[in-house]
UniProtKB/TrEMBL annotation:
Pfam families: CBS (PF00571), MgtE (PF01769), MgtE_N (PF03448). Homodimer. InterPro entries: CBS_dom, CBS_dom_sf, Mg_transptr_MgtE_intracell_dom, MgtE_N_sf, MgtE_transporter, SLC41_membr_dom, SLC41_membr_dom_sf. Belongs to the SLC41A transporter family. It is a multi-pass membrane protein. The keyword Oxidoreductase does not apply. It comes from Pseudoclavibacter terrae. Acts as a magnesium transporter. This is Magnesium transporter MgtE. The gene is mgtE. It is found in: Cell membrane; Membrane.
Amino acid sequence: MPPFHSLDDLVELVTTELARGDLSAVASALGSAPMPEVAVLLERLPAGDAGVAFRLLPKDEAMTVFERMDAPAQREVVAQLSDADVARVFSELDPDDRVALMDELPAKIAKRLIQDLPADERGGTAIILGYPVGSVGRRMTPDYVHVYPHERVGVALERIRQRGGDAETIYTIPVIDDERHLLGVVSLRELFFADPDDAVETHMATALYAHADDDAEVTARTLVDRGVLAMPIVDRESRLIGLLTSDDAHRMVEAARDEDEAHAGAAEPLRRPYLTTPVFAVVRSRIVWLFVLAVSAILTVSVLELFEATLEQQVALALFIPLLTGIGGNTGSQAATTVTRALAMGEVRPRNAWPVALKELRTGIVLGVTLGAVAFAIATTFYGIGIGTVIGLTLLSVCTISATVGGVMPLVAKSIRVDPAVFSTPFISTFCDATGLIVYFSIAKSVLGI
């Protein structure tokens, strides 16, 4: 068996050996590869091959690999396993990973798996399931170790040694009182180098925390941006109920980024590697957006029909339609993308709609004046001052309107609980095409007297 030196080599090797039916070679390759690479490998393989490869992993490594996989890939692997194997895998997952997988499984299967869990595991999972989908409470782990402010460091370290094996992380340790109210956090490093007789509170730091009902993506971005290893999650009475770990936060941020990139390209995220995604899944990810854009095109045609007589009198106007609609759509999309990112980063809120509108209005005017001046000079040179004036004024108007609407739309979407990236793109495309043409021909009729 030839050695492999990269993830691509591993994928090629495993795919080749699976096609040959040489399972011993596959098991040998998987056993000698780092577990993070094996997790990515299983995500890249077709569902059937991924199921076979997963069953060839040593039992002590299989769960570690499985927990590193994305939930959609986990679902496809689970579909290839026997009921007994599924129950074993499900019971060994951490509660937060278990809930993420449940969100991907059919409701009947998820309910049966929950019922088959041991009572203690079922309780931890039920706590997380009680929070709304999309909230950070749904993504936290209830498995953590805590310390108290007045106990000695030596006592705290002993508790960490005894209970830390069941915790998902021990590097950031919440400090709580007897009623479980969060008081702060302390790092394991700080405790390790402290005097054993010191009180824990002398080494305690202020906690960066979130409430269980807070948006999971916003919380994850905050954790990643601040560079902390874990964030305590509290209920409405500030009682500690779990932790959001950095690895889970990074996965959420990466998934959100992939989704936003897909929406920006007028498609839904595939959630699987491209080459292993079925053709019909690719079609489903694109078809809805194409229908929306088709409606936009129909509206554009309707507007053109309204101004058919104007075009007949001044045919040169038709030459600039692609330029004007393209610039209008791109201006709106740029504004929407900027504000959508600002929303995700917590830099703006729906209540900031008016300041955002004013900022984008001024931005649109500057863009419109700049582009309009250039277009006026070029169009005047070839088509006369009348056409040049129409094009210049239209660009000024279109850029101003598109930037303002594009900047406000994500805030409107957020306020009505719709994904800004999903809502803004098709709306702006439709709005800018139809509105831009109406503005264009209205200015043309006024300036040219037709």
